Amino acid sequence: MEPIVDVRNLSYSYEDGTLALDDVSLKLFPGETLGLLGANGSGKTTLALHLNGLLHGSGMVTICGLEAVKANLAAIRRKVGLVFQESDDQLFMPSVLEDVSFGPLNLGYSETEALAAARKALSQVGMNGAAGKAPYHLSAGEKKRVAIAGVLAMDPEILVLDEPTTYLDPPTQHGLAELLSVLPQPKVLVTHDIAFVRRLATRAVFLEKGKVAGEGTVDEVVEHFHWWGPQVPRSL
Fold it and tell me: Is residue 161 part of a domain?
């Protein structure tokens, strides 16, 4: 089976000289959910930002057969839906419906098409009743669902979610896991939350100081690296 995401020998340094990624290689296959684990500063978010071309390092990143170079970035960003850790970074329009339709409009949809795509996406995430609300009136969990809807409205082939459980209480995390489990797109979950990623991921990759230190099932990675994340006690 051909990978839908293929990262080969990727390295990236920030302007201050910090080496964030050091010869990273990984693959995401159709139908799977990949957990991307590691401590703060291990390079997880930097890697996620390479998957839709927001950052570009040395090495090769291929998405759905397209190399992540300048000529392909518009197509790649239609294929990869990136959900940021901070929902407020994605929600900025006066109403939920306007916010979710913003992406399709930018892709060239007519207003009618964009609104239809937005309503469909809001229904997918269980937020169709909030279409007329202002995003800042929503709870953290509702904002996360609307942010996901904004990505789904553009019909991506891959979902990348950066720390999706941040600010969410356990019941809301449970509901989010149920939602993600029924979405058909292959997913990359960048997370500290072992309990959450255990529910969803078919495989995990562990980053350490910008390198891939190991991969396997979530339990294999957790046990091998004795890494339980900041939110999960060792006794679990």
Answer: yes
pLDDT in tens, 48-99: 999 999 999 999 999 999 999 999 999 999 999 999 999 988 899 999 999 9
- Residue 230 CB-density burial (10 A; 0-12 exposed, 13-18 middle, 19+ buried): exposed
- CA gap 57, 8 in Å, rounded: 11
pLDDT in the model for residue 192: 83
Angle at 99 between CA 96 and CA 101, to 5 degrees: 110
Domain count, the chain: 1
Domain with 28 in it: what CATH number? 3.40.50.300
Amino acid identity at 58: S
How buried is 148 (Cβ within 10 angstroms: 0-12 exposed, 13-18 middle, 19+ buried)?
buried
SS3 at position 204 = strand
Mean model confidence pLDDT for the chain: 92
pTM: 0.91
Of 122, 79, 80, the residue nearest 100 (C-alpha): 122
- Do 158 and 186 touch, CB atoms closer than 8 A? yes
